[in-house]
Structures
1.
Amino acid sequence: MPRQLGRRVGRFAAAHERFRLALELTPPVVWLVVIYIGALTALVVTSFFTMATDPTGLVTKLSTTPTLTNFRRLLTSASLSPAYRTVTLRTLQAAATVTIVDAIFAIPVAFYVAKVASKWARRGLIVALTMPLWAGYLVKAYAWRSLLDPQGGAIKKLVGHTPGHGFAASVIVLSYLWFPYMVIAVYAGFERLPNSLLEASTDLGAKNFRTFRSVVLPQVMPSLVAGSVFTFSLTLGDFYVNQIVGGTTEFLGNVIRRQFATDAPFAAAFAIVPIVVMIVYLFGARATGALEEL
Amino acid sequence: MVLSRATRIALRIFVALVIALLYAPLLYVARLSISTAHNFAWPPRGWTVGNWRDAMHEPGPRAALWHSMLTATTATVIALVLGTLAAFALSRHRFFGRNTVGLALVLPIALPGIVTAIALRSAFDRINVAVSSGTLAVAHATFCVVIVYNNVSARLGRVSRNLDEASADLGAGPLQTLRYVTFPLMRTALLAGALLAFALSFDEIIVTTFNVDGGYQTLPLWFADNFARPNKIPVVNVVATFVVLASIVPVYFAQRISDGGLRTAASM
C-alpha cells in the first residue's frame, strides 16, 4: 500500500510542476525561515529588552518591557558612541587588512595553479592549498600563539623580532586562517578565464602587465569579491583568534561575547552593527556579480 | 600572455614559499607533540612518545571527540536532506521569491559567526528552550545547509534535464528515474557536500560556544578550555597533531570524489 501511494505521489508530482516545487521547497524554507530568520528576529527583539536590577539591588533580571536604552548607550546622535566606535573601527580595519593581504597572496598563487602549473602539478597544489582548512582552526591559532611568543618563540629566535601578541598578531593569524578560502575562490575565477583571451591580448600587442590589468583582473574580480566576503565576514565575527594571540586588544566579537554573559540585550543591540556592515558589504558585492559564486 | 622564464621561476618560488608558510605551524605542533619540553621554547627539545601515551588515557579529549562526531553527523544528515531539496527547487524551477530563498540559504555563513551564534541563542532563550546537544545540532545544521546546496546545485547545472525525459520516455516512473538516473548522477556531489558540511561542523566553535550546555564539550571546546593550562600543554599538542593527521582521511576521500565527479561530468 505505501509503495503504491508513493508511486501515485511521484506520478502526480511529475505531472504537476508546482506541486513538485512545493514538495522540494517547503522543508528547507520552513527550516531557514523558522530557525534562522526567526533567530535574527529574536536577536532584534532582545535588543529592545534590558537587564533590570530589582529594588534590593542584588538580583538582575531580564525585563521584557521594550525600551531604547541599549541604543541610547550604543549611539550618539550621529554615530556610534566613542568606546563602541573605536572597537568597531578596529575590527573593520582588521577585516579590511586581512582581506587585502589574502588577495595579494592569493592572486599570484591562484594564477600559477590555474594557468602555469602542469595538469599533474595542479591537482597536487589544490590538495596542498586546501588541506590546512581541515586541520582545526584552534590548532592553527594555538600554534601561532607559541610561534609569535615574545619571550622564547620561534619567530623571535629565528628572525630576531616578533610582533608578539596584539593587533598585528591577530591580523597575521586571521590572514593565515582564511587564506585557503580566498585562494580557492580566485582559482575558480582563473580557471574559467579562457587562455585564448590571454593570447588575444598578447597578439594585440599588450605587455604582460597590461594584459593582467586590463584583461585578467576585470575577469577575476567577481571571484576576488566572492573570496573577500569570506575573509571579511569571518574576521568580523571572530573572537577566539583575538583571545589567543591578540593580547589585550578587543574586537567586536570579544565585546559582544563579554557583554552577552551579563547583559544579553545590550550584546544583541551591538550585534546589529556587524549585521548592518555585512548587509552593506553584500549589496556592494552583488553589484559585481560575486554572489553567484559564493 | 607569454611569461618569461624569470617570471615563471619567480612565481614558482613564491608558491613554494606560501605552501611552506601554510604548513610550518602544523609541523611545529607535530614536533612539539613528541618533545620532552613542556613549553614553547625554540628549538623544541628531546624526543618522546610519552605525551601520546598520556593523552590516550585522558578521558576529556575522547569524550569531546565523540561529541563532535555525533553533532557533525546529525547536522550533516539534516543538511543533506534540506540542501538537496533546496538545490532541486532553485535549479529546476523559476518562481517568485527565488532570489530571496537563495539569500536566506547563504545568510547563516555570510553573516559573521558571532551574529549567527547569539541570534540562535537569543531565539532558544526567547522560546525557553534550554541549550543542549540537540540545540547544538540544530544550530550546526542551519549553517551546513548551504554547503550541500552549493555542491548539488553546481552538479545540477552540469547535468542535462534531457536525461530525466529520456528515462520517462523509456517508461520509467518518477521514482525509478530518481533512483536509477538522478541519484547516481548526484552521488559524488552529495558525498562531497556531506564531507565539507561534516568538516565545517566538526571544527566550528563560535556558534558552538553559545548554543550548548557546559556539560557537552566538543573537541574545539575542549581545546579552547585547555590550551592555556600549562600542565595540559603536552596533551593539547598531541590532540592538535591527532586532528591534523586525522584530517588526511577526509581530504583523501574528497580528492577521489572530485576526480570521479569530474570524470562523470566530462563523459557527458
2.
Amino acid sequence: MGLLEVADLSVEFEAPAGRLRAVDQVSFALDQGRVLGIVGESGSGKTVACRSILRLLPGERARIAGGKVLFEGRDLLGLPEPEMRRLRGSRIGMIFQNPSTHLDPLMTVGRQVAEPLIYHRGLSARDARARAVELLRLVGIPDPARNAEAFPHQFSGGMRQRAMIAAAIACEPRLLVADEPTTALDVTVQAQILRLLLQLRDRTGLAIILITHDLGAIAATCDSVAVMYAGRIMEQASKAELLRRPLHPYTRGLIGSRPSAAARGRELPSIEGQLPPLDDLPAGCRFHPRCAHAEARCRAGTVALQPATPAHSTACLRWREVMAA
Amino acid sequence: MSAAGLALGRRWSRLSPLVWIGGGSCLFWVFVALAAPWIAPYDPVAQDLAATLQPPNALHLLGTDNFGRDILSRIIWGTRLDLQMGVLGVVFPFVIGTTIGAASGYFGGIVDMLLMRLLDVTISFPFFVLIIAIVATLGPGLGSFYIALALVGWVSYARLIRSRFIVLKHADFVTAARSLGYSHWRIAFRHILPNAVMPAIVFSVSDAVIDIVLGSSLSYLGLGIQPPTPEWGLMIAEGQTFIATAWWMTTFPGLAIVLLAVGFSLLADGIAENLGLRD
C-alpha cells in the first residue's frame, strides 16, 4: 500500500451564487520516495486539492465535500484537529510559492527552522538551534551559523525558499507538498531548488507532490504526473508516458505551447479561450469549449477519467482519435 | 517583541529626529524622577510660613506657594507620580486590550461577537465621565485611577490589535505556521502578535499623555492624589485661587505637564514615522 492515497476528493466553496466545486472527485496515489507532479493553470484547483491533504483550506467558506485522504493508512479527513496538527510539520511538510511572504518577518531564520523541532520533537532550544544550523547547511545556505541569525528580509529569494524547505523538512516528514516552489524565483535558482528537492528525496525517501504550471519542472523532477483542469484530473500517467504520448487534447495543448529551440522563429501555439468560471462550468467534458476534437457526446453526460492503458488514464472520450491525429 | 525591538535596533541609524528629541525628553523626566532626592533643593512638603507666595528668585528658582513650599522641588518630586500615572495607566489597559483584541480577531465568530458587544457597552459611556464615576465609586486615590483606566482604557487597544489580527491571520507566514502544525496559542502569540503589536505600542505612548493629563485632572478635582503630596495637577488646583497674584504656582506645573506630554507625543510620532505607520 502506498504512502498517500487520495480518493474522490471534492472541495466546495460557499459563494453568493451557491456552492462552487473547486475540486471535483480527484484521485491520485503516491509511494515513498516518489515525486508526483500536478500541473494545471491558475484556478484549476491544484493548490486547493493539495491543501486539503493538510486540511489547510483558505477561509471559513471552503469545505471538503467528500472523498478520502489516506496517509500511512489513516484517513486524514476524519482525524480530530489536534491529531492533524501533530502530523503537519512533522509527518507532512509544505512549502509555498512565495518564500518572501511565507516566512515570519520578525523572527530569525534559524529560529524559524528550529521551531518545529522544539514544538514537535520537544528538543531544547540549544539542541534545536544546533540542528537548525545543520539543516540550513543541508539545504545549501552558505555560512549557516551566521545566516541563522539573519532575518528573512536579509535573504535573497532563493535563500528564503531554501530556509522554508529547511523548516518544512526539519522533523523529517514522509511527504512534502510543494506548492509552486519555483514560480517566484529566477530561472537559474529554480533548477537549484528542484535539484535540492530531489537530493532530499534521495537522502530520506521523502515523497513529494510538486504543484506547478511549469512542464519543464515536471520533466526535470517527477515520476508521475496528473493534469488538472477546472477542478478535475484530465490525464494521469508516468512522466515519460505523458510527455511522449499525451492522450488528452488539453495536455497536448500544454505541451505544444511550450517554447522550444526547434520551433524558433515560429509563432508559439496556444490554447484558445479561458478556463471556465466555477459558477458556469460547461456540461460534459469541461474542456470541450476549447477543444478542437469536441463532438456531440463531449458536450453532454459525464466524462470520467478512464484507463487507456493500465498505466495511463485520460478523461478524453476520443483519445484514440486524438492519439491518431 | 524582542524580535521587533531587534529589527528596530538594526535600523537605529535611520531613526527619525523625532525619536531622538522625544526619547531624550522622556529620558530627562525619568532622570528627574529617579534623582529627585538629590536634585530637589528643598523638602517638597516642608512649609516655610516666612516665605509664602514668593515670585521666582535666587533662593526659590520657580517661587513658592501659599504655604512657602518650593515649587521647583514639588515639581521634581511630582515627576515620580506623574510618570507613574503615564506608565501604569497604560500597562493594564494595554495587556487587557491586547489579549481581548487578539482573541477576538484570531477566533472571530461568536467569540468576536461577544467581546465586541462588551466593547460597545464600554464605549457607549463618555470616557471621562465613566472614569470619574468609577473613581468616585471606589474612592479617591491612585489605585482607583488605575482600576478605572483598566476597565475603560482597554477598548482602544482591543480595536487596534483586533483589526491587525483580522488582516494578519490570513497572512502567508501564518498559513506557513499552520502548515507546520503549531497550536492556535503559538500562532497567535508567537507569530501574529509581534507583527501586530507595533501600532498599539505607538498608540500607548500617546495614550500615556492622556493618562497623565487625566490623572492630573482627577487630582485637580480632588479624586486623585491627596494633599500635601506633590503632584502637578494638584499643584495647579492649589494655585488656582492665587492665579491673579501668584501666576508661578499654576504656570510651572502646567508647563511641566506640557513638556512631558510633548516629549511622549514626539516619541510616538517618531516611532510611527520610522515604522512607516504614518506618512
